[in-house]
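Continuing the series of single-chain predictions for the mutant panel. This is the parent chain; the variants come on the following pages.
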Amino acid sequence: MTKPTRSRRGPAAGVRDPQLFEEFYRRHVDGVTRFVARRVDDPHTVADLTAEVFLAVIDSRHTYRARRGSETAWLYGIARNVASAERRRAARESVLNSRIAGRRLLESDDIARLEEKLTAENEGRRLLASLARLPEGERAVIELIAVDQLSVAEAASALGISKVAARVRLHRARKALGAAGATGATGAEASDPNATHHLTYSGSKA
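Parent structure:
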C-alpha cells in the first residue's frame, strides 16, 4: 500500500511537523480567507480571523477524521465558529475596541489584496444576509452548501451532524426560501440533495 505523501497527512501531522503545517496552510489559506471575506467587510478583520482559524487548528487537530469529510469541510466548521465568535464579540464591544485591540499592522499591498477578495465576495455577503431570517440550524446548512459550495456530506461534517439531518435542514431552508422567491435553483437541483449550487451566487469558489 502506498504511504500518504507528506503534504496529505492531515492537520494533526502538520502541527507536529512545521513543514507539513506550512504545506497545510498554503493548501487552504486562500479558501479560508474567501470564506471569512464572505462574512465580514473589513480587510483587517479578514486577516485577523483567518489567522485565528489556523491557530484554532492547533487546538482542534485531534477532532479531524478523514472518514467524516474533507479537510476543507473540517476547516470551514472551525472558520464558521471563529466568524460567529467575532460577531458576538462585536455585538458586545465598541467598534473601536473590537477593531483595534490586538491587531497586527498590514502593509498597503496586503490591504489591497484583501480588499480585492472582499469585492469578489460582495455577492456572497449579500446572499448570506438574505438567509439571516432562517433558524440557525437551517441557515448554517444552506450557507455552507449554497454559498460556500460544500456538498451535503461536507456540510454535515463541518457542522458535526448526520447527512440525514443536513438534508432535512436543507429541505426546510429551501422550502422557506422558495416560498419567498429567494432561491435560484433549477428543478433538477431542487430534487438532488447533493447539489452544491442552490442560489444565484456565482462568485469565486473557496
